[in-house]
Every structure is written in C-alpha cells, then in structure tokens.
Amino acid sequence: MGNKPQTFTLPEVKPLPSRFRNALGKYRVTVSKACNNCGLCVTLCPYGVYKTGSRKPRVAAEHLCLGFPCSANDFYCVRRCPEKAIQLSLNPSFEILGDRRWPAELLASTWHMAETGEIPYQGLNYKTGDSGGGFDKLRFIFPRGQGLDIPDEEVSTAIELNRSGDSRPGITIPVPFYLGGMSFGSVSIVTILSRVKAAAALKTFCCTGEGGYPEELIPYDDHIITQVATGLFGVREETIKRVRIVEFKYAQGAKPGLGGHLLGDKVTPRVARMREAVAGSALFSPFPFHSVYSVEDHKKHVDWIKETNTRALVSVKVSTPTDVDMVAVGSYYAGAHIVQLDGSYGGTGAAPDIAKKNIAMPVEYALPKVHKFLSEEGIRDRITIIASGGIRSAHDMAKAIALGADGVCLGTADLVALECIRCHHCESGRGCARGIATTDEELTNLMELEWATQRIINMYLTWRRQLVSLLKRLGMKSVTELVGRFDVIGHLDYLKQEELEGELDL
Amino acid sequence: MPPKYHIHTSQAANRLQSITRSGVIAWEEGCLNCARCVKKDCVYKVYEKRGIDAGQMLESLDSACKDCYRCVQGCPNKLIQKGLNPAYKDLGDHYWTPEIISALWFQAEAGRIPVSGAGYGGPFSGPGFDAMWTDMSEIVRPTRDGIHGREYISTTVDVGRKVMALEFDQSGALSITPPPLVEIPLPIIFDILPWSPPRRRMNIAFLEGARSLGTFAVIRQSELYASIEEYLPNMVLYADRKLSDIDDAVLQELHLIEIPYGEKVIASQNALKEKHPGLVTIVRMELGPDSSKNVFRLAAEGAGVIHLVADEYGLEKADKPLFISERTKEIHLHLVEKGVRDQITLIAGGGIAMAEHVAKQIICGADLLSVDIPLLVAMECRVCRRCKEGIACPVGLESVDPSWGASRVRNLMTGWHNQLLEILGAMGIREVRRLRGEMGRAMFFEDLEKNIFATLGKRG
Question: In chain B, what residues touch A437 (CB-CB under 8 Å)?
Fold first, then answer.
C-alpha cells in the first residue's frame, strides 16, 4: 500500500423512532383484560416492547418484538406472564405491505436500520426482495479460509470519482454511493434538505434532480450534483458554476425514452418560480435532448459544461438499452467522468407502468455487459460506473459493484428510511400522504428535518457496516477490489453445488 | 401529413364497485372516542365519503383507500388494520391475474393509462411476454407523439395480400390488378370470445366500439342477425357455417371475411374472390407446431391473411405447447427465410392481455393482433368463467347497455394505443409497421440469462 488512504470521519448513529404512533412490524402484541399490571413483561423484555401503563402495560414498540423465535428465551413474555394475558400473532397489516421488489420484511428492515442504526434481529430478510430474479437470486460466494480478521477501520469503502487522468480535481467519497436526483416538486423541501444534509454528513453527494437549485442548498454546494435534463428547468450558469459535479440526464430508468411529467397540482408558486414556469400548469420534460442527435452533439454538451465550470466533473445518466455498452463508450468519448446506468426499478414521481416494467433491460444485465466491454476496449479504469435504479440494500449495492459498477446511486431507500411504505400513490391528489413526495404545506410539515437527516444517516451507516463485513469475508481490504469480480458472485439458478468453491451466502 | 389518428374517449363509470386488493378493518370496540380521531385526518377523506353499496354489500371505503397506513399507524388503540381482500385474490387465474384485470378495469373507465409512483414493484421477469424487454434509444430524432411530438407515430397496418412489384404492359398501363388491402389505424381487431354469457348485446358493443375506432370485430356467421347488419363494414364475418349460406348482399357490404383453415381453404378463398374482388379473406388457423409449415404453404398457394389463434393463455395446441410469441417468431423467421414474409399479413391472437403484449407480439413477427377476453374485462368481467359452466354471470354481462359497453371498449383501446405509442416513441420508431419482427430491438430473458448470469461464479 503506497499512498496513505484519505481518512474520513463519519457521523454517529443516533436512534430515532418512527414519527407515527404505531410503528409497523411483523408481529402484533396484545395485552388482554386479564392483565393485573404486575409489570413483569416491562422488566423482562430487553427490546423495550412494553412501557409501564396506568391500568396495564402499553405495547409501545411491537415492531421491536423478536416474535415467535423468542419462545426459546427465558424472558419470553407470553409464557412468563402470570395471567397469560399476552398474545403474540402475525400482524395482519404486514401481509399486504410492500410489493415484490420491496416486500414488507425489506421495508421493516430498512425502517429498523433508520431507527436504530443496527441490522434487524427480528428474523426479517434485509438482504433480498421477492422479485424472483436479478439481485434477488444473486448470492456472494465467500472463498473458504480467505476471510480477513481485521478491524473494520482497516477496510476502505472509499471510491474515486475522477478516474479520467485529466487535469480536473479528484473527488474521493468515503462510501461507494451518492444520492440520486429527486427534483423539488416531486418531493418536499424537507425531503430534499434531509438527503442533502445526510450526503454532506457522509462526505458524499446528492443530486438536485431537474427541479432547479433551491437556495436552501447553497450551504451544501460542495456536496451537490446539479442536473441538466431535457427540460432545462432551473439550469443557470451560476448553478453550474456552484458545484463540483454536473450531471446530464439523458434518460431515466423508470421511464426510459419517455419524458418527465410534473402534474399541474404539484406546480405550486414556489415550484413554478424555481423552474421558471407558470404555477398550476403541468410541466413536461421532453425526451430526448432536442439538441443532441449524435455522440458529437453529446460531446458538445459535455464541453459546454466543462467550459462553464472548469473544475467540475461531468456525469452522464443513461438508461439501459440493448446497446448500453456502446452508450457507455460514447459517454467516455465525449469526455464524461462518470456514466450512471439507471435501471428501471427506481423512480419517485409518476411513470407509466408499461415503461417501468417493459422498456430497457434490468440493470443487473447492463452492468456486466458494460464492464466487460469497457475492459475490452481498455478504458474501464478511465471512467467511473455508477449503478442506480433499484438498489435497495447493502447487499444490492455490493452485488452491483461485483457486477461491474464502481459505486451506486440511491434514492428510494432514502425515502423508505423516511417511512415511505411504497403505496405507489406519490402522484395522487395532494401528493404523498406521508409527507415525503409532496409540496403540500400541511403534509410537508409531517416530517422534521433533523429527524429525517439522521434517519438517512443511520441507515447508510448500517449499510456501510454490512459492506465492510462482506468485504472482510471476501478477503478484500477495499471496495475497489470488488469491482467486476464475477467469480465471487453467482446466480442461484445456475450455480452447481459440486462446482462451488466457497460458501454461499443464503 | 395524413390526419392524426385520434380516439375520442368518454367517461364510462363502473356499474359495480371494483374489487380492491386490500380492505380496511376497523373495530368499534375499544374505541377511545378521541376528540381528534385519525379517521378525520384521512388525506383522501375516505371515512367521510364512506357508504355501503346495498346491492353488493361492499364498503366504499376500500375502493377509495390508497393504503397510506396513516390511520393504521395513528389510532391510539390500534383498532384499524389493513387486510388482503380474499375476493381480489380470487379474481381470474395465474395468467389473467388480479393485477391485469384491475388495470383493464381502470383503463376502460376513462381511457387513461396506468401510472404510478415509487418505481417498479413487480417481479424480475416471468413466463411468456414477461420474458422480454423492449429497447429504447438515448439519442433519437424526436418522434414522441403527444405534446412535444413534431411527427406523430402511425399505428396503421394493412390487411391483405401485398404484391412485391407492379407490372406494366407495353403501353405502360398497369397490367395487374393489385389485390385489395384493408387499412386499420390500430393494429388490433376484436376476436370471437372463448366463452361468455349470451352475447347479443355485447356483440353490438364490440361492433360499435370497432366502428368508432376504425377497426373490426369478428362475428360468427351463426350470430349474424339483421339488427347488426348496419355494422357489416366493420365486421369480420367468421364463416362457422356454410359459406354458400351467406347472402350476396352481406358479402357486398363486408371488407373482411374469415374462413376456417382446412383442405379446401384456398379454393374457397378463390371462389369468394371471383364473386367479390374487393373482399379480403382471412384464414383462421389454430396455432400449433406445424403452423410454420402450413402458413408458408398457404402463402405459396396465394393466401393473403392468416389469423393464428392460440388458447386463452397464449398457448398453441400441442402436447408440449409453445407460447404464442415463441411460435410466431418461428413462423415469421421461416417466412423471411423463404422470402415471402412481406406478401402476407399475420394476425395473432390468444392470451393478449395488456398493451405491452401488443408491442411484444408485433416484435415477434405478427402484423396485428386479435384480442378477446380484455374486451369482456372492459365491461367488468372478473374472468371467473362461470358462464362456461352455464352459471349466471355475477356482473350481468348479458344485459350490458351496448353504448356503455362500446365506450368501455373504446376507452380500453385508447389506453392501449397510447401505451403502444410510448413504446414506439422510446424506440424511436415512427410507425408500427416497422416494429414487426424487430427482434433486434428487444431483449430476451433466455439470452440475457445465458450470456450474463450463467457465466457468473466461475474461477479463473
């Protein structure tokens, strides 16, 4: 190890409970009338499920309950209750929560990490979803006897974003991720600020999305990526000059080849001012860039940004068509430092279901395709590949890196940390009923900035710890060693037990 | 530019309350009667608007609720829960899923396309049409239809035999008569239903819907009543009885006629052509392992249009059936190889359940599609198939108001048309005719898995 690695001080975890009275958990705990309020359960439970009450203990945090596996413990309240007044059952509301990509257990795990900064212990699957393919069927193969027994501090999760070798400054981020663009208009100002503040605390970046550059973000300029998208909303010379990274959005995984659409209801006077548009009228971000019909035109765009801001790195966000590898090469040729491959599982605002499901290939296929092609072209180490659009967990992040990305870009997971339940109704009426993806004043006030910032920090610190632990088991001291390691990752449908050299992570 | 194809939609409300995925379970017992009840805080005001539909014994609550869980998480005594609606789970079957059925209902109401927030929540892939993805282009000429469209996208297809070259005599006059072509502005026709309650009224709805869309509905000869003869120009008459029983006056009015595949099918086609040169004949053929061979033979013998029909799950008739898209690919490529693909029109049907299936099936080689069950679902069918057993239809399909039914069908097709435009626009394709057989602009699960995932986990 020649160069001394840059050291970063990461923020601390601060436990922060749900902002709702009843947090949602896998189990339901009820105390019947038979209770004599002896208080035994309150003292027994090490997880703090119960709080003392005047007539009987209050079930204050059933989401922290260990559930049926607790029956193996001495402190199992259901058995120990002298009046047999405690009932434990599966929470019926849990059954319909979430979807195939974000099943209830993954949602609850994410909430747990955001609340406590710890990996969940309630028997929740925090590693995969239930989509039946892709990330959910990929597993790490840990080579036997090669795990590292070293302190976590000796493992680096930092990545360099400028690998081009040009004269622009290098930017190292201590975690292999930054936060993706969610425009002002599609989410509330509290949501935006909390993500930006969390990104700043984690010494990484957060993208503005296409909604302009709210002035509240100015103190965080050094941690902001500003986006130039086809609608050019809120793009000004001064905003381009302010930042260290500028992102071109060619396409968006949630609606590849389709324009963006902000419903008139969400265009409040403030949103309109920022976007230099008319309040109450719907805003369209067309597809494609009407000034780019070739790679040469694209280069002209990149040059234009580089000329406007001589220290900025340029990122290009694209979707995953059949020729995604050629698109990546084109971006490199045009002088981009970062190419972001946006898969089709992400997205905050509304998108046609047909586009999300059918257009462009899953990012899990695109990554190895691009990594291999750029390696063969001899330019893989001159550009940074960022994967996005459906990275839900630390395990997804690590898998994306093993499939060929240098790092990932995140969005939906932040919203889940803020207690998004993925009802998919971001767009309806006044917007998100939980105050995340809305510009309605009353709903925006459902969430406090400090709470939201810390929840996001807590979750990502937990992710980072999981990544470090995965790297150690793989015998790696740096996340950069994991990039494109197709040998340490396998697909459950094609791995043959007899050919397996190592332990599978199930 | 020719005029833009535009469908006029009109709101056509559900007759019945729709069946939703989840229901609200709210207990009264144990209620603390809080001064500020969580039910009053509902963002969507579902508790204020609630009411019981006496006919169906369904709570309006459930269809208005948008699953935000605020009340579930706010009630101090935890008296409100959300639960899976068993009636929802029972809708349809493994192929005609509750998700598909409810999406069709939604589109039939006003012609809007299904849109949602928070990204994709479905499975990675699946059998049949779910095993492929369509392409997009990062950099294309702006082809988007809609508000930014400069050039609109055509969804018109031609039905009939095409000549590959014109021939002229010595004086320079055209020496051949090109066979008739029927132009349809939407690559979809309405097919015979695999099952349904008595459909006299529904047939009118289909025909009326087809007429307003500029397309066609297949009607059996045995169901041709005088009352629907005004729709002959938008009808594909399916000869399920003797061809000779059909009145000349009827044939005179028709543009399209369909005859079942059989030994004498080309002779029948020629006989029809002789008497009615303007009529286009379609040969209806059950999809099967021999289709490729049979279609080529028919094409060589002069057939112009072949309608390949799979079962309601998109499967061909065979011991180990192939899915419609797979068999169509084979047929298409066989015809391409033989150099006759452009001479004939292939209509494919069976298992077409969503707008994306239209685009994908065309990519696999069909010129246009025939749809059946979605037309019933547009009229609130629940795909329970009780009618098949002779049991009364729970949603009274036999007595629908034909004009309401026509609006529902038209709305659904508007939704499908707009979604087809989204797919074409993303690919930078300006007309659906160019989408046919464009397999290079699609990505197939099998190929991607083999090239990418199956190679992982290997040392060295």
Answer: 117-118
Q: Kindly report, residue by residue over B127-141, the tens digit of the pLDDT.
A: 999 999 999 988 765
Rounded to a whole number of angstroms, the distance from the CA of A195 to the nearest CA of chain B is: 17
Amino acid at B353: A
Question: What band does B434 get if pLDDT is binned at 50, 70 and 90?
Answer: very high
CATH class for the domain made up of B22-90: alpha beta
Residue A436 has pLDDT above 70, yes or no: yes
| Six-digit token string for A298 | 């694209």
- Give A214's strand partners: none
Domain boundaries, chain A: 27-90, 151-491
DSSP-based helix, strand, coil % in chain A, nearest 5? 35, 15, 50
Q: Within 10 Å of residue B289's Cβ, how many Cβ atoms?
A: 15
In this complex, do A295 and B139 lie within 8 Å of one another by their Cβ atoms? Answer: yes
Q: Is the sign of the CA dihedral B411, B412, B413, B417 positive or negative?
A: positive
- C-beta contacts of B163-171 below 8 A and 24+ residues apart: B163/B343, B164/B342, B164/B343
Instruction: Answer yes or no: are the C-beta atoms of A449 and A1 closer than 8 Å.
Output: no
Mutate which: A287, A294, A415, A491, vs B, most B CBs within 10 A: A287
Provide the pLDDT for residue B140.
61
B457 and A292: CB-CB below 8 Å? Answer: no
User: Which residue is closest to A443 within chain B, CA to CA?
Assistant: B43
Flag the least confident range among A236-245, B26-35, B79-88, B160-169: B26-35
For B157-448, CATH number? Answer: 3.20.20.70
Residues of A in contact with B116 (CB under 8 A): 350-351, 353, 356, 424-427
The CATH T-level fold of domain A151-491 is: TIM Barrel (3.20.20)
Length of chain B as a residue count: 460
The ipTM, to two decimals, is: 0.94
CATH class of A27-90: alpha beta
Q: Is A137 helix (H, G, I), strand (E, B) or coil?
A: helix
CA distance A338 to A126: 29
pTM: predicted TM-score of the whole model, two decimal places: 0.95
Taken in order A409, A354, B358, B192, the sign of the CA dihedral is positive
Q: How many interchain CB pairs under 8 A, A with B?
A: 282
Per-residue pLDDT band for A2 (boundaries 50, 70, 90) equals very low
Contacts of B449 in chain A (CB under 8 A): 491, 493-494
B87-114: pLDDT as tens digits:
999 999 999 999 999 999 999 999 999 9
Domain layout of chain B by residue ranges: 22-90, 157-448
Q: Which residue has the tokens 């009932």?
A: A87
Residue A504: its pLDDT value, please?
A: 86
